[in-house]
Amino acid sequence: MNSASSAAPRLLLVDDDPIVLNTLGTGLSRMGYGIETFESANAALACYRAAPPDLVILDYRLPEMTGAELARAMIKEAYRPIIVLSAHSDAPTVREAVGLGVSAYLVKPVEAERLAPSIEAALARFAELEALLKQGMNLREGLEKNRIINTAIGIVMERSALPLDLAFESLRRLARDQRRPLRDVALELVDAVSTANGILQRLRD
Do you know which Gene3D superfamilies this protein is assigned to (predicted)? Predict the structure, then answer.
């Protein structure tokens, strides 16, 4: 593992390719980000659980667990923006990643200069979402609710091509129209997408 200054946004970079770790880690560090690099998904998850970072960048194909499994485990602990890097651009893989609520999906090879705008956009959207949630709901209801709503908003953004604020408002409006808690509507959407993805996966197998 490699560590850098904690004064800057703290990023976890997870990839089993040491060349990718070194190239991206060095480039992002020079841009002022605090970087912690991991070849091991399990080690990255342990670090995440101990102290969630500001953002995670992970490879979608890892030996100890898949990128999807790692992303799910991390989001279950505490929601943070996740950027996925992958050599695969097929629609099912991209949809699976987006269904998890990741902030961006970039196809390798990716240089630090190309990655930086996605990092800044993801951090900005996360800050904006936190502000929207503070305006629209009681944050004491917990991180789990935050995670589910974040994931649902990501799905609405991807499926309806809406910006974050409009996606959030559309979910909130639906909850009001149905006279249901926002979390219940979000959970129903996430479950429906997960079920559909599971059926499609079984059909492909």
Answer: 3.40.50.2300, Winged helix-like DNA-binding domain superfamily/Winged helix DNA-binding domain
